Each structure stands twice: as C-alpha cells, then as structure tokens.
Protein 1
Amino acid sequence: MVMNTRTHVRRIVVGTALGLAVTTVLAQNPPATPPAAGAPQQGRAATVGQIPIPQPCTPEQIAAAAAAANQPAGAAAAGRRGGGGGRGGGVPCHMPDPREGLKAGKYDAGEAALNMRLVTTMRQPEGMFDPNATTGRSLDYANSDLAFGLNGRLALQGNFHGLIFYNIEDPKKTSLQTLLACPGGQGDVSIWGNLAFMSVEGYGRLDCGAQPSPNAGRGGRGAAAPGAAGATPPAGATPPVGGANPPAAGAATPPAAGAGAGGGRGTAPPDPNRMYGVRIFDITDPRKPRQVAGVQTCRGSHTHSIVTDPNDKENIYIYVSGTSGIRSADEKAGCVPDPNAPNTSSFGIDVIKVPLAHPEQSAVVSHAYIFMDANTGEIASIRGRDQGTGAPKANPTAGCHDVTSFPFFQLLGGACSGNGLLLDTKNVAKPKRLDDVADPAFAFWHSATFNNDATKLLFSDEWGGGTQPMCQSIHPPMWGGDAVFDIQGTGDGRHLRFGGYFKMPSWQTSTENCVAHNGSLVPVPGRDILAQAFYQGGATVFDFTNSSNIKEIAYFDRGPIDAGNLIIGGYWSVYYYNGYLYGSEIARGLDVFELTPSAHLSQNEIDAAKLATREGCGASNDFNVQCQPHYVWPASFVVARAYLDQLERDKALPQEKIDALNAAIKDVEGASAANRRAAVTKLDTLAADLVKDAAGAPAISASRMKAAASTIQKRNAQLR
C-alpha cells in the first residue's frame, strides 16, 4: 500500500515527576525539508528529533523532589530511580544516581543495584578469552546473545569464538557444561527442541576451524581468533565425542573451489572453505554438540529469527538479517551484488526452511523484499532520517539488523537500520509490510520487541554501534535508547503511532561503551515490563504500560572495566527466563538475577510472572527472544492478587474493596471442605462486583479489574 507522507513534529513535555512543580517544553530541531515529488514515501510516524541535554539538578530541585516523595533529601536519588522516568521524561534536570562513580575493575568493580539481586555470576571461562590480548577493543572472544532450551536445563551463550553451554537446572548453581570453538562473527543463537542455530557473517570455516582465512583482511571483520575447533568440556568434565562436524550429506552445498567473492562487509576473493550464513547443530546431548548443516546465504547472517507457519508443523523457518557485503555469483550461485538489479540480493531478508525431521536438508527458499512499494514494485522504497536534522537519508534502507517474529499474532517487527517496520507473516515466505516509521532521534534501528498483546512495538537505537560511550552527560537523552510505538488499527490497516522514549537515565563515563541493546519482556500480568541490556550502562528494568510515561523500576550496574581506557564489555542481552534474569556479559561471563519486591513491583507480581507459560514458538521451555512467545497465566489466586496490587498501587479501587477481596481469597484458601462452598460463593459475589466497577474505570484499570475477576471466577470453578 502507499505510505502517507506525514512528518510529525513532537513536543516533549516533561511532567511533574515526584511532584516537582516544573513543566518544560524541550527545544525542537527544524522540520526536515519535504521530499521531492516521486521520492520514496515515509511512514506514518516520521518525526523530528529533539536535543535537550538536562543539567545536574540543583540542591533546591533535589530537595523539592525529595519532599514530594516524602523522603529525606539524601534518599532522593534512590527514590527517584526506583520509579522515575527514563531520559524521555521525569524531572527536567539530572538527579544524582547511585550508578555513577562506581569503582572500575573487571571482576572487582563497584556495583549498584535497585530492586534486583545478583544470585550467580559465572566468570568468562578459559578458552573463551585471549590471555595475550593487547587491546581492549577486540571482539574475537566477546560474548553475545542467549537462547534457552532442553526443558529448562540449558542456557546457550553465543560468542565471537563459538558457543558456551551452561547447565541452569538450578539457576543459583549454574555450571559450565561445554565450550564449542567455532568462530565466524557474533554467533547469534536460537534453540528449537534438539536443534541450535548460529549466525555466521565474519570469516567462518565450514568445519568450524579457527585457522585464519587466506583472504583475511580483504572482507569480513578480520581473521578468526586462534584456537582449536570442536567441543571442549570445562576442566574436569568428560571430553565430548563428535565435536563440530562438517555439514552432513544433503546439507547446503559449499561453493566449489575457485568460486567467487564475498565475505564480511566488503568483497573478498573466492574461498571454498567459507561459511557465511546459518549453522545448525544437534544438541540432543549438550556435552557433545554436532554440526549437521550449514546453510549458505548471500549476505551472511548477522542475526536470525525463527518463525513458524501454523499450517506447517513439519518445518520451521528462519529469517536471516545480513549486514555484510554480498558475495559474488562466482562464490555462491544466485547472489546478485548489483543493488539496481531486479533480483538483487539486497533490500530484504533471506528465508530459510528447516525440515525438522531432516535439518540437513535446510535451504534458502526465498528472498523477501520487505522494503518494496506494493503499488509501484520499487524494491528500495523507504528511507530513514538523519539523526538530529530529520532530513531524509541519502540512501534507501537496504537491510535489517534484527527482526522479531511474534507467531501467535503472525506479526514481525523489523529493526532495519534507518526504519522500524511492522509486518504481517501469514505468508511466512513472503512477509508483507504494514507500516514503517522513521525517527530523527534514532541513528540505527537495532532491535524490536512487542508487548504481550501486540498493541505496542518497542524499538531500540544502537547509536555508536555498541562500542562507543554514548550515555554521557553530554549526550542527548533520547539518543541511543528506545522508542515505543502503539499499534493502532486492524488487519492490513494496522499502523504505528509514536508513544514515548526511554533511555537508561544514569550518566556513564567515557570508558564505558553504552547504548540500548537486547532485552525481553518480564511476564507480569497486567503490565508491560521490559528487562534490557545497556552494555556497560548495566541492566535496567522498566514499565512501558503507558507508552508516554515510561518508568524505570529496577537496575544493576558495575563500574567500568578500566578507569583509564575504554575496554569493550557490559551486557549484550538481559532476558527473563523461568523466574530469573540472565545477563550475557561481553567480557565478564554470565550473570543471573532475581527481581525483589518494592513499591513498584510486588511479591505477588513477581510470583505471578513465575507462573507464566509460553506458547506460539516451539516447546514451552524453549525461549528465543527474537521468536517472541505469547505468555499465558493460570487461574491462580497469586495472579488475581497481582492484579489487585496494581489496582491498589494506582488507587484505582477503594482500599476497602481491595481489602475485602484479599480477605475473601484468603478465606477460600484456608477453608475446610465443609466451609469452602460458602467462602467461594462470597468471593464470587465480590468478583462480580469488580466487573461492575470496571464499567466506569479508565481502560487500563478496567482491564485489570476484569482480569482479576475472571481469574478468581475460574479458580473458584476449579475448587467447587
């Protein structure tokens, strides 16, 4: 469909957070010049960026905020951070923050935490770091993303040098299980049953070997780090058998000797040993991972995302986002580097079909041109905006950094360098773009996350590429954070409308790489909560239920790895899985956290999140954030209490009604068999009254009242 050309000029009004009686309208950049006739159309929510830079709060402002929060001035910072907005809202000045000024160190850095607790930390294992490294900016052994599976037993950590297998049967006693040396880029990972998938885009060998490419330095990100190939147990473990094998018979065929060019972000001479796409491993025994296929693509795989077709139970599909240079047809038949060709290998995503019974037969089945104009057929039809000025970018958007599928709703969120996309995946091989947005506060659209009912889509901006210190006091507070868009309309008319910004609010130092990165939902019923990594800005947890009033509710941070030099580190991803938060630390290893109760998150809400189950993307205990599951909660009084806690926090219901409901729930739980019927009848009556109260309540409160009543009634039916 034709996208409307509309440029929205937004004014950000900073509210009176903590009662601070100041309302500020932030300065605007001038609107961009409208595109000329015939230029590519912009999405509905193209916007003009803002560049406000808050100054430190004065003692008077701190005292005013503390007084409004009914707490001593010395506690103002902690109180503000526990429920204050991110850099897109809150007070119009920068409050002191306990995360600032922490001691530097790799394993002995200072720490600051609010409403979350570190329960386990696993230091970077031997074999996955270079003891002779001379620069702190090398990524040869950097940890990357996480996936979970094998019925809750496995956390799989990607690494630029291979894969790390952790046993998390008891998260508080997490143990290292296996190391697999298999270089080839950042090693983005996913799990489906007994299969693991790994992205390859830097120089990788078909056999997982680590010998430098004969073409090192000509394409890709440089030679692979030295080290032995194959699976390696931690010290004292039983050596695995099989290791990483070349693709089995029937797998994607490697290019013939002397075949053409490609690899990395440029063009390299042909290499018959190059692996440039997605590896597939059998992890039935995680101590003995075995490569069963290597699917070659034209642009490699920076990231990938699993997607499913509800009418095809025999196969799963993988959307591949490649950000590197396109191979020549000499190296892989069918690759078309020419961006002007009608069958170019650019301007889209590759779609791999994986037969679950025969993964060795996996192959690319289509190249989806998701930037095409449906009316004109123009392949390169959308452009982003220059950060700050809002001017249309000189070049059209050519690819995605990451896409997140939401199979339950047959939707896809695309974070595509210059634009954010919303797509329909009813036809899995040919996803259809519903809307696209551009925002001059964004430098690089990096990742996407839906809320649980697919009414919001959150995009993150990796300003600076993840290796730069972009969270300093000198930086615009909406740059390098998140933008939340509300999904409005129905069917093919669904579109994105800007809601609000969020950025981790603590000022970091010039030796800490910091920007928004990967996160996942925390499945608290009735709320939209995200846990997110900000590299050396730490882990943050925030509530975006109201997309125009986003609030940070928990965090964990360490000081820089080095006080004098920027050494790349911090959290690549922070994900919620089965009651715990897992943080993949680029340089330090793996951390496991628990959320703790506070005024902003009750124990009932924490317990209700632990009861949530996943559906829509594989086995219930498989978890790949980029194949987003739909969460459901049981008919449990714990879940009902979580809704009641939210109503109480928002003062959405008279306290005596909340007290009566909680007391009636307690009576049912404690009733004898003889007295249970009477207790259940009383509670049913109160639940019915709650439904009546919902009729006159605001939308979010009404939704929680109805959900609490429904949960109570279902649980009572089970107890009758």
Protein 2
Amino acid sequence: MFSYRDKKILIVDDQKAFHIMLKAMLANQGAEDIKFAESAEQAVKIANLIKFDIYLFDYNLGAGKNGVQLFDYLKRNQLIPSHALCFIITGDSNKRMVLTAMEKSPDDYVMKPFSPVQLSNRLTAATQRKEILQDIYQAIEEQNYELAISLCNQKIDSDSKYRILCKNILADIYIQTQQFTVAENLLIPMVKLRPLVHPSISLGKLYFQQKQYQKAIQVLMRLIRYAPMQMEAYQWLARAYKGDGQLDNALNILVQAANTTHNSIERHQEVALLANEMEEYIVMLSSYASILHLSRNSFYPDPCHLANYLRSIVTFAKQEGDMTKRKEILKKVSSTLYQSRFEEGKNKDFNFDGFDQLYQANVLFALNEPLKAKRRIFNTLNSTKETITDFDTTFLTESLFSLLDIGEFEEANPFLAELEKRNIEDQTTQISIKKLTGELLNARIDSFTNHNQMGIKFFSDKRYQQALECFDKALALEPVNTGALLNRSQVFIKMLQQTPPHDDHKSLIKQCQNSFSVLNNTHLPVQFAKRLIILQQELKEIKGAA
C-alpha cells in the first residue's frame, strides 16, 4: 500500500465536490498535507510557492486552460520536482483527450470514478518505476550518456520487470548519440514478434534519420495497423513520407494526427508548413486558424500566431486571379483584426495599432494598389514613437516584410539588422524570414541595383535617354521604390532643362508630375523628402519659365 505520510499533495479541479471527496479519500489513507486549486492560474501561483510530492490534475478545469496545459507549463518552467508524481484525472474517456494527455508523459492517467485502492496501486507502481529509472534519467539530463548506458545495462541484467523499458531507453540513447547500428540491433528483436509501441517508433525514427525512408514507412505503418492511436508514430510516418517525396500521403497523415489530438500547436504547425509548401491553401488556412485559437487559450499566447494566420490569408488571396473573389477572401483580414483587438490587442507589449495598419497595407498591396499600400506603410512607421530596437518582434517582422513588399530595400536594412539579433522561436516566422531574405532578397536587390546604378552612371555621363531606360527597368522590378522614382524624376528635370521648350516638354512634365504624385502625401524618410522638395521646386521653375 502506498504511504501518503509526509507527502505534500496538490489537487487541481474546478469541482468542489470532487475536492471534498478526494481529500476524504486521501486523508483516510494517511495524507495530511493537501492543497487545492480550482483553476490553472491559481495552481501556478501555488506551485511557484510550494514544491509538492504528488500532483493530481483534472483534465477539464472549466473555462480557460486545462489540466494538460497546466502540467506542461509547470514542467517547462521546472516547477515540478524530479521526484514528484503527476497524474492526469478525467471523467471523460474521449480518445482525443486521453491521447493529448498521454503525449505529455504524465506518470499516469486515471479515469473517474476510482477507488482508494486503485489510486494507491497506481501511485505505488509509478513510484517504483520512477525510483528505478531516476538515476538513468538524471544521467541523460546531464548528457552523461556513457553512465546512462551503463545504468541501463545494469537494470536490464538485474531487473526483469523493467527490462523492456530499459532497452527502450538504451536504444533511444544510442539513436541520440548516432550509434545507429547498435540501436538497430537492439530494436529489431523487440519488434519481431509484434510491433511494440516504443521500440517501433524508435526504429522508425532511426530509419528516418538515416534517410532510409521506405524502411521507416514499413515499420511505422505496421505499428499503426496494430495500435492506430499512437500519434508520435503518425508524426514520424509523415516525415518519412515527406522525405520519400510522397507529399500527399505526408499531408494526409499529419492532418489526421492534428485532428485526433487536442492542443498541439506543434502538430498543426507541421500541417500548415507542408500545406503551404504544397500550395494546399485551404488546409494551410485551417491549420493556422487552429494554432491561433489554441495559442489564445494557452499559457503561451503570442501575436506571431495572429501574424501567421493573416499572412496565410493574404497568400491565399494572391493566388486567386478573379479580383472579386480575391476581395472576398481578403475581407477575412479585416474581420480577424477586429476580433483580435479584444485578444492580442490587450497585450501591452504588442503594437497592435501599428500591426493593424500594416495589414491594411498588405490588403491594399494584394489588391494591386501598391501606392496606397506604400503610403500607409510609411505613415505607420513614421507615426510609431518607439525606436526600431524597442519594436516588439511581431511588429518588427511585419514592418520588415511590408518594406520588402514595396521594394524599399534601404529602409528595410535596419529592420533586418535588428531582427537578426532577436531569438525567433516560432517555426513559421523563421521560415518566412528565411524565404523573404537571404539569397532571394539578395537576388532581388542585385537585379534592381544593377539597373538603378547603370541609370545613375548614364545620368552622370549626360546620357539621359539611356538613364531613363535603366530607371524604367528598375521600376518595372520594384514599381514604387522611392530612390528609383526620384532618380527618374531627376532625369525628366534634366531633360527639360537641357532642351528648348517644345511639344515633348508637356509629356516630360506630365511624366515627372506622375512620379511626384506617387511620393506625395507620404511620410518619406528625411533624405528622400528633402530631395523631393528640391526636384519639385526645379519643376516649378521650369514650368514658370515656359
């Protein structure tokens, strides 16, 4: 019988009746130090003050965060001692809930109702398992793999009850240390008769890491046919399919896994990224919407998930050639921003107002109105009081992307430089930054700069027609780049100054005014604003002289 003597116990459940019942049950078994919390937030406050020996989390804590999210948060923040036992308790046998809970690896999962004897037996078994394996896990945590391997072998030789479990751990250590042949020789006999769950997943993972994708697929498919609810197997199977070039199968498997479990932002992230790669935009949108919803109800709400969802809407809209349909898709941006004002908009560390304006600009850009988009982007950044170094990471990222969209490379440089100093944890954001910068951005800049610099050279040589042709080519690549627009305007001014008045003057004046109209009513950077004023004054003098 499990001894509750001297054990500190935390019970987290939103039902007071269960508190009373469980307290009586535990007290009758000898427990004395029992504390309660009715919500995840209250439990976090208590866990920050006291370290317990036993944690009993009810899965469903009413509105807000659930028991699995709480357990995961406490583990991540090292608020649960290594010796402690953690149980998830629920009265719901829903498979999705069970799978979600077990994926977080609590010490056990208990269904209501249960008897004192049942709970005691489960606590006894969990304690024995933890005590037997504690030194192994400690060695692994300290990355002392040689010691961990030695301890595993000792347990395998001396303790038949935990022999299979220790072999699983040993194989995982060999995979971690890339001793693949040793791991394979250990795992194959374990799955020969039937596909044991942990050894099969480890073997599939091993084959995947060695790029033996067909072998990985074979092992993992066999396991799934035998135990169809093992979500980690689906995850590695999808990766093996992707590695093997079977993208449709990979996406189907990932979607199935994401829809089977609750609260897995990481799993939906994999779906969204693969769907985007495959241009399966409906699936991509659905996954980013799920991530945004899950984030809002988690311990880790992050405005980057709002940005990812909105970016996926804009990406989807741009693929639609019919402008009427494109407008309909883009309406979702405005409705989402309105709703988000009451969610992410409450985050004082997030510049929601500026973010809102940038996404209104993104909509304009997607509707082929780059001039309006440019004005809104520059006006938004000009009205932002913080320096770039004080921008929150999501607003900083979207500012960079917006400037790159309109081809303002020089203005984007300080934003990119600051972003490179930040620790970007979100995988979608990492990939988006990599996609829009790096080699792709360098190629864009090189192509644009070649034409622009050649135009400047021709202008210096007083070869104004050739200069004009070069600036036109530069603007064909980046239609609203401020520097190129000013360069072209300067050519028009010089051509007007160098030639006597004639009919062509009207055409040149009109083209110059058109370039100015693009830049008017925009909060341009200081050096560009000064140059624009000078050129406008020169044009005014030319018109006056005529």
Protein 3
Amino acid sequence: MDNYRIERFFRWLILATIIQGTLFIISNLINVDFFGTKAAKEILVLEGKVFVQNLNAIPNYLSILFVYSLVTILSDYRYKKYWQLLIPLMIAVITVVRSMILSFAFFILNAIIWILLSFKNLLLIRNLKVIMSVYIVNSLKVIIAILIIVSLILAIVPTRVNFVIDKFGFSSDNIYSYSDSPVTSLIKSSNFVFRIKLIEEAFNMNKNTDLIFGKGYIREAEYGKYDFVLGGDTYVAPVIYCEGIVGMIFRLLPILIILILSIKNIFNPESKKYVLYYISIVTLILPTLINIIQTSIFIHYNNLFLVFMLMQIIIQRNKINTIKNIL
C-alpha cells in the first residue's frame, strides 16, 4: 500500500469516526437508539429516566481524533477544524464514563506539557512570536470550547450532573466514609479494586508452575462464571493467566519501543517536520500506560498501534524519497 492509499484510509477513518460519533451524540440527546445495541451495561437510569448509553457504539478511534486535533490546534494557526475536537469532548461528557473523562483530562495535560517541551523543534518551523500567539490564543479557544460544550450538555441533560459528581466521589450522599478523600472514594466506588483482585488471582494461579509462559488458552471455568481466557474487566489478568510474564512483556514491548522513539524524535531537529505526530503518539500512549489495569492497547493492535505503524510507514517513505531526491 503506497502513501496515497494510506492517507486515503486515514481520511476515511476520520470521516467514519465523525459520523459514528455524531450519531452517538444525537442518539443520547434525543434518546433514540440508532445502533440497536441494548446490552444491560448500556442502560443508564438517572432519577427515574432511562438513557441508552450505547457504549459499544463509541468510535474506536475517538481518542486519536481528539488528541491529534488538540495538538494541531494548540500549535498550528492554520488548523481551523475545531469541530473535530468538540465531537470527542461531547461524547466523553455524555457517556459519564470515569475512565474516558480522566483519559481526556490526561490527554489535554499531556499535550500542553509536550508542546511546551518541544518548543525548540517548533522554533525550527516558525518563529517564537507566532508560536506563542498561536499557543495562547488557541489554548483559550480550546478552554472556552470545553466549558461551552460541558455547560450545554449538562443543561440539556441535567440529571447527569449529580451522577458525575457522585461517580467521582464528591457527593455529600456518598455511601463511603466522610473521612475518605475524593480519590479514595473514587477508587472504592469503581471497579479498580475488583480488577486488582483479578490480577492477583491470575498471578497466584500461575506462580507455582506457569508464571513464566502461562497456562495457554484452555477454558477451565464453568458456564456463567468468570473465565480468564475470555477476559473482560481487565486485560492484564487474562494475559498473565494465558501467556505469563513473557507474554505480557512481548505485548508491551512494541508500545514501549514506539513511545521511546517518539520521545527521542520530539527533540530531534531532523524530525521537526513530524514533531506534531510524535507529540500525538506520546500524548496518547502515556495516559494509556498509566491506566494499564483497564487499557486494551496491548491487546487490540488494530486500534492505536495500527495508526501509529501506518504513520511511521508514511514518515519513513518520505524520508527515503527525500534522500533519493538529494542524491
């Protein structure tokens, strides 16, 4: 596949993500199910009102669209497609999913930090005055856009306000001790402890004989009971159970390699043309690895990792063509 076809694939990916995301937003705001996926976990009842969340309908590449749009908006005055940033933000607010809200918050913080750290390389592309004016003005625009979107969604669906507050442990009616901090309440009220216990159980089941290479993909649990082979809740436990420590290392290795290379290239003057791409990669991977208990990045290589590899192919081909033209 040549670069032209890869770029066409990316344009189709962005278009499909925007269309699916828009339908997801409309579906939740007017309570009409366009997707026909009504699993029990997708039904949210707030103060007697039923909302169809359609969590399975969230576009797989939503985080990529959000991060790339955010990084480009903050650093390039020519980028005007702000609506590509708003769609992921609206979905994050509507779903009331803690992991997604926290991930997007980390994405924003991460993007700002790495853009500041990469100023030396950005200076090779345009002067300091332009960079600072673009960064400050566009940062304000992004903040205003976030506040407007959050306010509109919460105004349209006010019943979710208390639900969000409660899920993050700030509610005065929280069932946990008042002495608990919001972070402690958040951990207690989430599935975090349950996922840790699954990882511990998988480790303990393997530690005597199969910790290195795992037990393999042989289903042992009875019907209706949790099975490590099928996974769910956390992907760390199934990998440790089935593939062992070696499997976990091999699955994480490609992600860590591309993360390290991207950080290196952010500060490499020879890679200044692709600095925004490398910032996007680091911005996406770091929060994902922090949330490793819940992430699927080392399982579903057809999501983030596929996009990273295709972009790397484009970059390497462009570099080779540049060398050929010089020679």
